[in-house]
Write a structure and sequence with these properties.
- It is an enzyme of class 4 (lyase).
- This protein is of the alpha/beta class and 274 residues long.
- It has one domain: Alpha-Beta Barrel (TIM Barrel).
- It is built from 12 helices and 8 strands.
- α5 links the parallel β3 and β4.
- The longest helix is centred in the last third of the chain and has 22 residues.
- It is globular, with a radius of gyration of 18 Å.
């Protein structure tokens, strides 16, 4: 069984939490109180981690927010990865996939150079583009399946000749590609009407569920429909509504208190479901 999956499920069982904290760190949105820090992005991320570590199962680094800043952003990403507690799953939200030899380099970058526990990938180019990721049987590979954005209707929800939806074909393929339990899918919380059916169709996959919070998905519905028969194997990602709380803060401590309060609220809501 995938070591990454075991780590996540042990944390879920211990905390009765499904919280995945999205580190979508935008320098333009960081509270003013961090502006005097030598490295505002890294200090902000450290604060988020300190404020949420008692409730979080996982942290998801959206690589675009770091890559957009060039080498300095990548250094911040690498330093942030080192700050994530060892008992928490570290996810690279990179949405990579390409022809096999290129994907092997992507997999090596995120699983060996940076030692993430999991990665998000895109299925469009098929099995040979994803096999290099699935070959790491100790990791978790989250394949985009039915995403939370409105544009998912353009392709993911199109009906194929056999009658099934494209996202259902992806779901079935990922179930077959999964190696030692390392297969997962990204399913948006805004698709709650479909989430229970997706779980019943793929009982053995690990779910990463974005779309709660700023995008309007229901936390409770996502938790209830997303978990497996053992009430595990699901993570609910919350980014903007958690790491950018409303208000102004006189100190970093005040900011952390606001983030911790929201993390505990999410944790308690999920605990009631689990």
């Amino acid at each position: 069984m995938s070591a990454a999956r075991n780590k996540a499920n042990q944390r879920i069982a211990a905390l009765k939490s499904l919280l995945c904290v999205g580190l979508d760190t935008d320098p333009g949105k960081i509270p003013e109180v961090f502006s005097s820090c030598p490295n505002p992005v890294l200090e902000f991320n450290r604060s988020v981690i300190r404020a949420t570590c008692d409730s979080a199962v996982s942290y998801k680094i959206n690589t675009a927010f770091y890559e957009s800043r060039g080498i300095e952003g990548l250094r911040d990403m690498e330093a942030t990865l080192r700050e994530i507690p060892g008992e928490c799953l570290a996810i690279a939200d990179a949405k990579r996939a390409d022809i096999g030899n290129t994907s092997r380099m992507y997999a090596r970058a995120f699983f060996e150079h940076w030692s993430f526990d999991a990665i998000t990938v895109a299925p469009y180019m098929g099995e040979d583009s994803l096999e290099p990721f699935f070959s790491y049987s100790d990791k978790l590979v989250f394949v985009l399946c039915l995403t939370s954005n409105a544009g998912s209707a353009d392709f993911e929800e199109q009906r194929l000749e056999g009658g099934e939806m494209l996202y259902q074909r992806v779901l079935d393929r990922v179930s077959g590609w999964s190696c030692g339990g390392n297969g997962g899918v990204v399913v948006g919380a805004t698709k709650s009407a479909m989430l229970a059916d997706i779980r019943s169709r793929a009982p053995g996959l690990f779910f990463l569920i974005p779309g709660v919070g700023a995008q309007g998905g229901s936390l409770e519905e996502a938790a209830e429909a997303g978990v497996d028969a053992d009430r595990c194997s699901a993570l609910i990602n919350i980014s903007r509504s958690l790491i950018y709380p409303a208000g102004t803060f006189g100190s970093i401590g005040e900011y952390e208190e606001a983030v911790a309060l929201e993390a505990r609220r999410v944790h308690e809501a999920v605990r009631k479901v689990l």
